[in-house]
């Protein structure tokens, strides 16, 4: 979509940045393909991670998801998840919307 890799991250389509930190990734149904990076689980200020509907996207949920204590919404429906769902996902204190 718009502005990818051409300017500041805050101008990239589907990315929300507050105070220089990525707080939202909302790329629902964007025809993404490939593997999402395991580094996504290091974005500790993330509130929203919504990648649902990207049927050619794959990856796994790292146990380090427990570090995303601000995560409120996680959407990975339709993504080719490998491995299991780590039990650490149940420790996220602010998670209220989960689609796997």
Q: Give Rg in angstroms.
A: 13 Å
Calculate the mean pLDDT score and round it: 94
- In DSSP terms (H or I, runs of 4 or more residues), the helix count works out at 0
The major sheet is characterized as: 5 strands, mixed
Rounded to the nearest angstrom, the distance between the terminal CA atoms is 24 Å
The fraction of residues assigned to DSSP E strands is 25-35%
Order of helices and strands: EEEEEEEE
Assign an overall shape: globular
Arrangement of strands in the largest sheet: 1-2-4-6-8
In a few lines, what is going on in this structure?
This protein has strands at 15-18, 21-26, 33-35, 48-50, 56-59, 73-75, 80-81, 97-99.
How would you portray this structure in words?
The protein is mainly beta. The chain is built from no helices and 8 strands. It has strands at 15-18, 21-26, 33-35, 48-50, 56-59, 73-75, 80-81, 97-99.
Keywords, separated by commas or semicolons:
mainly beta; 3-stranded parallel β-sheet; 100 residues; 0% helix; globular; 5-stranded mixed β-sheet
């Amino acid at each position: 979509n718009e502005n990818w890799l051409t300017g500041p991250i805050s101008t990239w389509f589907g990315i929300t940045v507050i105070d220089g930190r990525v707080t939202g990734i909302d790329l629902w149904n964007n025809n993404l393909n490939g593997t999402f990076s395991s580094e996504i689980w290091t974005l500790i200020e993330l509130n929203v991670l919504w990648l649902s509907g990207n049927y050619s996207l794959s990856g796994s949920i790292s146990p380090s998801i427990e570090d995303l204590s601000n995560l409120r919404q996680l959407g990975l429906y339709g993504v080719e998840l490998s491995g299991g769902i780590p039990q650490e996902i149940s420790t996220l204190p602010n998670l209220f919307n989960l689609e796997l």
